[in-house]
Amino acid sequence: MVKSTTTAGALDHFRTALELVASLSDGAIHVPCLRAVASAAITIIDIAQAVTKNKEDAIDVAKTAAERTNMLLDILKEKTRDDISLDVQQDIERFAQKLEHVQKVLLKHKAPIVIWKRVVSRASFRDEINRCKDILNESFQTFSASLTLKLHTQFPDRNLAR
Fold it and tell me: Which InterPro entries does the record match to this protein (predicted)?
């Protein structure tokens, strides 16, 4: 029970931070696609908290989505729109699309089902959740590797000085 309360508190914290980012994304932060990423992560958290079957698995994928999105925000911290190349903006957009896919999977499992179908679908839902976590992890790793490579090639002198 402590784990559930702790996770719920962490998700609430992530949700609040993401709401702030979404509200600032068109103004102070102004990074293209950042609103879409933050909004999709918020929706995933909301759906996961409302899911009635395999709630723990849904919360786990929401936590993964929130953590990956938070890492993305940390990477982009203190960057201006001019600092972010079109390629990186496209990578952010692809990450947002993956979040939207996860959102659809969770939404599909939000509706209550009859008891006999619940037993049959539990393993299937768990498999879908695990695929969602894999999608988020792979997508974020691709984004991170791509961004690191682009930053090293864009600012080679700064990276060697470190």
Answer: Adaptor_Cbl_N_dom_sf, MLKL-like_MCAfunc
